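Students often ask why we bother encoding 3D structure as a string. The short answer is that it lets us treat folding as translation between two languages. Here is a chain of 126 residues written in the first language.
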Amino acid sequence: MTNKFNPRAKTVADWAYIGIDKHFHKVLKHEAGVLLDQDTEELHQIRVGMRRLRSTLTGFAPALTMPKSADQKRVGNLGRILGELRDLDVLKGFCRSLSANFTPERTGFTEESFTSSRTPKGEGFC
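And here it is in the second language, the structure alphabet:
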């Protein structure tokens, strides 16, 4: 959150809801890029947004009345799932960079190795 004065914020809960709104919209902003599965930076930015959202929920918990579907634990679980997906993307990039120095016969890696191991990100978000 910024340090600028916000006339809408009169209570701690108001500041909490402003923070939640900001971080939630950051997550939504990068959703389409993640579903296209073309740039790993989009997934990284969603993870950053989820961490900040969870921190906001945790830090302002005493001042908030939130629906059960938006509790800290569920946000954290989704963040962990996204973390595992990010780890796979990083590993895939690392393997690609290593395999560029060797022939497919020597490494056992081909472009098919990177695409057939899992479904596109979009299929799990329906």
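Translate back mentally: Residues 12-125 form one domain. Keep this in mind for the problem set.
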